[in-house]
Specification:
The complex is a heterodimer. By secondary structure, chain A is mostly helical. Helices cover 62% and strands 0% of the residues of chain A. Chain A contains 10 helices and no strands. The radius of gyration of chain A is 19 Å and the shape is globular. By secondary structure, chain B is an alpha/beta fold. Chain B is globular and about 55 Å long. Chain B is built from 13 helices and 8 strands. In chain B, the strands form 2 sheets. Chain B has a 4-stranded parallel β-sheet, sandwiched between helices. The longest helix of chain B has 20 residues. Classes of the chains: A mainly alpha, B alpha/beta. Chains A and B meet through helix 1, helix 3, helix 6, helix 7 and helix 8 of A and helix 1, helix 2, helix 3, helix 4 and helix 6 of B.
Chain lengths: 159, 294
């Protein structure tokens, strides 16, 4: 966590979020803001990440970023909203504020090693088309994964 | 040229888009591109999910895959643009930020691993365009697809942000268009060509799922208006979004009937391959309108 905090500080200060011109390039580039403009506005989220992180991490808007990177590509000041939102979500996660759907998918990924479950039917279908079975996640890989994740990661998912 | 990669299949292609995996394997085999297997990869750990819990640990989980590829000494071939984006991002962040690389390597060390900076991340499109090369692909085209109007849909992570993916112009991408032209198909220019399908943002709840359908509607309407026979994507997640969204819209009374193909499907057809070997039977939206025009 020390590391995440340091990174966020770096993105918020070194990357000059305080010099955001409020030009709205991020919002006008954002596919989410285009279709649900009343609910999602990355320009305002950035301001809140800077001015009121605590309040921002209590809500769910933070989780609506579709991770397309258009804002990051286009910001004239070189601010990286996509990365800032990921880091900001770390603070929401630390408080236990992960919305139910993402929480369920993340748990499945870290517990089974994949984001989509593999059942018998899938491997039968693959066999019908001459494809090898889905490559399994070995116990060795799962063990390495657990070591890399550490205990704190799972604790945040259980909160 | 002898091209060889270690296959990084990813969950969407190997579980939900089996037809696409089939298509890549058969087309690559016919092109003489060799794919090796590894049992050691883990999930790419999508940054929008896993890194949201812990940025640095998440990055370490993603980077573990880079160390597996380094061990094998082969470039990785990703099938999914999101795997490609996620792994390219990890590589960029570790290569450009020594402090972060040190932190991540400290964590990887707990699993007996270390990222050395040698891993190379590729995607089906980058391999075809950059490694195999368009001129050579043209030589393989035996049945030019003249008369097929193909609407390119680039997706996001294959070209954006450019500093992670190093593939195409982030504002005016054109490499997919060039690859489509090589098959003899006509490239359709339409306003949603470089839009996002909101696939990665679709699973956070009802609001985001609804948003993704609104976007799919815009994309399909725009391609249809410009006379497209099909949409041609670079990513299996985009295929899923555009097909499933299309079916939901059909249920609401809006029937676009627009087949969604991956670029390799189009390439395979132009090489005279049997649509069955390209997974056409497994498409959710019938590709018949395209096949009838051949």
């Amino acid at each position: 966590m020390e590391s995440s905090k340091r990174l966020l500080d770096k993105l918020l200060t070194d990357e000059k979020l305080s010099y955001c011109q409020n030009c709205g390039t991020c919002t006008s580039s954002c596919p989410m803001a285009r279709v649900i403009p009343d609910t999602y506005n990355p320009r305002l989220l950035l301001q809140r990440a800077h001015l009121d992180l605590d309040n921002l991490t209590n809500g769910e808007e933070l989780w609506l970023c579709s991770w397309c990177y258009r804002c990051t590509e286009r910001c004239p000041q070189g601010i990286q909203p996509t990365e800032i939102f990921l880091l900001t979500r770390n603070f929401a996660s630390e408080k236990g504020n992960i919305p139910p759907n993402p929480r369920r998918i993340i748990k499945s990924i870290v517990e089974t090693g994949r984001s989509m479950p593999v059942d018998e039917f899938i491997n039968e279908l693959r066999e019908d088309y001459g494809l090898p079975p889905v490559i399994g996640v070995s116990e060795k890989t799962m063990e390495e994964q657990r070591r890399i994740m550490g205990d704190e990661f799972m604790r945040r998912l259980e909160k | 040229v002898s091209l060889e990669y270690v296959l990084y299949p990813g969950c969407v292609a190997s579980v939900r888009e089996i037809g696409y995996e089939l298509s890549v394997r058969n087309v690559f085999e016919k092109l003489g591109i060799r794919l090796r297997k590894s049992d050691d990869f883990n999930c790419c750990m999508p940054a929008c999910l896993v890194h949201s819990v812990d940025y640095v640990r998440g990055l370490a989980l993603t980077s573990r895959n880079l160390t597996v590829a380094e061990e094998m000494g082969l470039p990785m071939l990703t099938l999914c643009s999101s795997c490609f984006g996620n792994l390219s991002r990890a590589k960029y962040l570790l290569d450009e930020n020594p402090e972060l690389r040190r932190d991540v390597n400290k964590i990887l060390g707990l699993a007996g691993r270390r990222y050395q900076g040698k891993a190379q991340v590729e995607h089906v499109l980058t391999v075809l365009h950059k490694d195999y090369k368009v001129e050579k692909l043209k030589e393989k085209v035996s049945n030019p697809l003249s008369g097929i109007a193909a609407a390119p849909f680039h997706g996001c992570h294959i070209f954006m942000p450019a500093k992670y993916s190093h593939f195409d112009d982030p504002e005016f991408p054109g490499k997919l268009d060039t690859l489509i032209s090589a098959t003899g198909a006509e490239v359709v220019d339409y306003s949603e060509k470089t839009s996002c399908c909101i696939g990665c943002g679709s699973f956070f709840g009802d609001v985001s799922e609804e948003a993704s359908i609104l976007m799919v509607d815009k994309i399909l309407a725009s391609a249809k208006e410009k006379g497209a026979d099909c949409i041609v994507t670079t990513c299996p997640f985009c295929i899923m979004q555009l097909e499933i969204g299309q079916i939901k819209l059909r249920d609401e009374g809006k029937d676009y009937g627009l087949p969604v193909l991956h670029y390799v499907d189009l390439l395979g057809l132009s090489m005279g391959m049997d649509p069955k070997r390209l997974g056409f039977e497994l498409r959710r939206v019938s590709a018949a309108p395209v096949l009838e025009k051949l």
